[in-house]
Amino acid sequence: MAQLRVRVAENDRPAEQKKGYRGLGMEGWVARWYTKNTGRDLTDYHRDARRIAERSPAGGRVLDLAPGPGYVAIEVARLGDYQVVGLDISETFVQIAGERARAAGVQVDFQRGDAAHMPFADGSFDVVFCRAAFKNFSDPVGALREIYRVLKPGGTGLIVDLHKDVPRKTLDRYVTRYVQSTRQGWLDALMTRLTFRFVLIPRAYRMIDFDRMAQVAGLPQYEIREEGIGLDVWITK
Fold first, then answer.
1. Does residue 81 lie in a domain region?
2. Domain tally for the chain?
3. Given this model, what pLDDT does residue 18 score?
4. How far apart are CA 89 and CA 207, in angstroms?
5. What is the C-alpha to C-alpha distance for residues 183 and 204, in angstroms, rounded to an integer?
6. Phi, psi at residue 103, to the nearest 5°?
7. Does residue 226 sit within a domain?
8. Residue 6 has pLDDT above 60, yes or no
9. Pairwise CA distance, residues 229 & 177, whole Å
10. Which of 20, 209, 214, 229 lies 20 to 30 Å from 164, alpha-carbon distance?
11. 23 Rama class: left (phi>0) / alpha (psi -120 to 50) / beta
12. Distances (CA, A) of 155 to 41, 42, 124, 128, 136
């Protein structure tokens, strides 16, 4: 892969780096609103859980980074004999995810922590997964370094997130289908559309952005793929 001359301003947002996320924190009513709406259709979360399970050995350790309500982590635990850990900056999400895991009758260790400063030893996990949260990290390069650090040799990291360059019409069609599949009322539907347009897409990264950050982070092997309205970033150790 060709080398690019880039500068990533890791210290542009010192206050946000300290708190570990960009913008409004997912606490309290915001986290509960998110859980209420996303929990109505778990199809995509279950698909991702199967992808993770396919890449983890029996008894393997899986980290769901920024799991939110824990949909993927809980489904992975249901699928087989995996040691599943979830790490989220939101105290509310840690509580919600723990309650959901107990209700599902599965063991998942949900912890509170920062993606750029993970409380795990080197080489702790066979798979590290992050869905729809990477764009919110205040120190994305630090998060990439940490993902690589905590992976075991031969392990796999997967980041799934929005693509900033997704065509407007394509995004609008996706959001319309999403609102319909989750059976949202008019107010929730309006909030969802506004959130995608004015919060999520402006924070999202382009493929070249991920390429630059991966190089600054020193990742020796990675692949970036376009998938629907998003990007899949595969990291191999």
1. yes
2. 1
3. 60
4. 25
5. 25
6. -65, -30
7. yes
8. no
9. 13
10. 20
11. left
12. 30, 26, 10, 8, 24
The answer to whether residue 174 scores a pLDDT higher than 90 is no
Instruction: Report how far apart, in Å, the C-alpha atoms of 190 and of each of 35, 178, 179, 185 are.
Output: 16, 12, 9, 9
CA 57 to CA 62: how far, in whole Å? 10
Is the residue at 2 inside a domain? no
The closest alpha carbon to 20, from 161, 137, 120, belongs to 137
The band of 102, judged by pLDDT with boundaries at 50, 70 and 90, is very high
How long, in residues, is the chain? 237
Spell out the long-range contacts of 200-204 with Cβ–Cβ below 8 A and sequence spacing 24 or more: 200/135, 200/162, 201/162, 201/164, 201/166, 201/171, 203/22, 203/23, 203/135, 203/136, 204/135, 204/161, 204/162, 204/163, 204/164
What is the value of pTM for the model shown? 0.86
Task: Give the residue numbers spanning the domain of 144.
Answer: 24-162+205-236
Q: What is the pLDDT of residues 124-140, one digit of tens each?
A: 999 999 999 999 999 99
Residue type, 146: E
Structure confidence at residue 170 as a pLDDT band (50, 70, 90): confident
The CATH number linked to 109 is: 3.40.50.150
Cβ neighbours for 61, distance < 8 A, ≥ 6 positions apart: 82, 83, 84, 85, 124, 125, 126, 127, 152
- Identify the three-state secondary structure at position 167: coil
101 within domain boundaries = yes
E runs forming strands in the chain: 61-65, 83-88, 108-112, 125-131, 151-162, 222-227, 230-236
